[in-house]
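ok, trying the design again with the full structure, not the truncated one.
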């Protein structure tokens, strides 16, 4: 019984998210673009990337490049490459699934396809739980999912005019669904570039460079709550995602005894107003990411990183403090098969000397076909 009601609370949260998101979208008319539109596309994919603090803009050169930086697709070293990932966020509440495929067209160009799903499933809809006689009828409970889907179609090409420079772009299709209560379709474009010079690699990724529009279609008749709550559910609305830029740099070091080391730093810049990041302003907010990868004979890898630098006010001391989200992971590469596991732990708050932790586990499997 307690588990049932805990799950049913998510119904209220889902309805609130839909109503709030749609209402915020109308604030665009008041020169206030909502933040965090299509934020599910910014969680990240691939165990290697997640273990390295999401520092992949300059590094990605397999099927995951379709997400991180499509320009990296032309660096693929196999004829075909495929990646699958399953991760569980917030201790398993949210499921994040990902699949990607890429292949070269010729020596200077490549294509790729990416599918992402982030969702919460089997949410009880308890709107009809109690009948007009105030009786609880569990057989009237139905279930639905709240899920966001993204599809990326990628193209990349090496430029002949500048040695070491490659560019790429994504055509992005978005579908967001809140059960039978509402859904949205969105479209956008990403663009990226990578440049290699010796052991140094540089990358630039521009997400939603044309801005991305989500058009919502709501179904107020599906809500059986009071008319007061129905008044806050719009039938149609539009969300706009403003451009986001990621600048990355990395370097590979050759160490003794068949060891190698990769160090990477990314700077993520958002343009939708102030965010709780290391650098925050009305014009742009900048969030840093850092990652390391120690490899042995290109077979076994140990990874670590830091991301999500934020300031918060402690509920105990009432003082401002900075928090950093650490990431860890391991990888194994053997005969074209790649297995990557990452663990991320977010310290939410420290109360009475104890920290509340939210763990996220990411597992991805990749294979390069010769």
């Amino acid at each position: 019984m307690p588990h049932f009601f805990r799950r049913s609370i998510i119904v209220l949260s889902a309805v609130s998210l839909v109503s709030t998101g749609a209402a915020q979208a109308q604030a665009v008319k008041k020169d206030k673009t909502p933040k965090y539109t299509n934020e599910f596309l910014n969680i990240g994919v691939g165990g290697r990337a997640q273990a390295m603090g999401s520092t992949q803009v300059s590094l990605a050169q397999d099927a995951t490049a379709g997400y991180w930086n499509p320009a990296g697709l032309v660096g693929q070293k196999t004829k075909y490459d495929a990646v699958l990932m399953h991760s569980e966020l917030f201790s398993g509440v949210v499921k994040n699934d990902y699949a990607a495929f890429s292949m070269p067209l010729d020596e200077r160009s490549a294509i790729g396809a990416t599918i992402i799903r982030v969702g919460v499933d089997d949410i009880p809809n308890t709107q009809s739980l109690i009948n007009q006689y105030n009786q609880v009828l569990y057989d009237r409970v139905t279930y639905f999912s709240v899920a966001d889907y993204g599809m990326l179609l990628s193209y990349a090409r090496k430029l002949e005019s500048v040695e070491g420079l490659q560019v790429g772009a994504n055509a992005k299709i978005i579908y967001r669904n809140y059960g039978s209560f509402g859904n949205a379709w969105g479209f956008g474009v990403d663009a990226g570039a990578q440049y290699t010079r010796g052991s140094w690699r540089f990358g630039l990724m521009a997400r939603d460079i044309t801005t991305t529009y989500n058009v919502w279609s709501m179904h107020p008749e599906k809500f059986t709550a009071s008319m007061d709550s129905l008044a806050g559910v719009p039938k149609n609305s539009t969300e706009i995602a403003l451009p986001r830029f990621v600048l990355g740099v990395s370097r590979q070091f050759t160490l003794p005894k068949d060891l190698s080391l990769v160090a990477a730093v990314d700077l993520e810049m958002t343009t939708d107003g102030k965010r709780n990041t290391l650098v925050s302003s009305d014009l742009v907010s900048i969030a840093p990411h850092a990652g390391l990868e120690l490899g042995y004979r290109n077979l076994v890898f140990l990874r670590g990183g830091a991301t999500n630098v934020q300031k918060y006010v402690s509920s105990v001391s009432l003082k401002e403090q900075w928090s950093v989200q650490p990431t860890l992971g391991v990888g194994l590469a053997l005969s074209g098969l790649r297995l990557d596991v990452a663990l991320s732990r977010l310290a939410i708050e420290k109360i009475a000397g104890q920290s509340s932790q939210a763990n996220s586990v990411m597992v991805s499997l990749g294979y390069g076909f010769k």
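Keeping the full-length input from now on. The two ends are 53 Å apart (CA to CA).
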